[in-house]
């Protein structure tokens, strides 16, 4: 990482975009993963909007926050990506309990598991206790991805195809934005149409839930497959917080232990709609 980038990351440095001064929705816990900072696919603007509108006692960063694979190929680090890091570090300073569980794209941080940096605890996995007394195993999820583990090169071929799909996704998004249409994920819909991807996702979900069940916990929170979900699988609560490349989702725990997946593009669209309604009501 060039020195200039690191200098901009210092706690005293100001973000290029100041925090929005709006009242934040408070949750007990927030889980996000698969942000892929350092890659062109990252929807940093939506994530910044999310971070400025929510707060929590505890926040889990469930892996692939920084995309080391993409950064190694080509250095890409716009100001918005710094702004995300700045906001995460500021949360830790403000007293949010921050737990960072590196994934496969940011595996370079796994060597620091057990250490704390700037108030952020780096762990290989964690147990989260919900307000209603359930124990949830929190991990990234690549541990169960046989392809990633046994054929690293094959995972990279997949990564290249994925990068191409993301580039296409950005182009579609740019066109839609120009016509004032809301964010829509081409890749998310493409993936749902491909039988193999669907089979892979459901197999992944089963394996993760099974492993959590064997460890005697009530449920599991993971990321990795960029598909947010929450459902019961063989008596185990399976939660996936999704990603900020395709779907722009987060998993939140309410103060009573209730869990919810937030689709942030929908939240922004609803906010815009209510602002229009308010403006029209005032005008009338
Ligand atoms: Mn991953």
TrEMBL record:
Domain Calcineurin-like phosphoesterase: 28-227
Region spans: Disordered: 1-21
Keywords: Cell inner membrane, Cell membrane, Manganese, Membrane, Metal-binding
Entry protein name: UDP-2,3-diacylglucosamine diphosphatase
Xref: Pfam families: Metallophos
Natural source organism: Sphingomonas corticis
Biased composition (Low complexity): 7-21
Membrane-spanning intervals of the chain: none
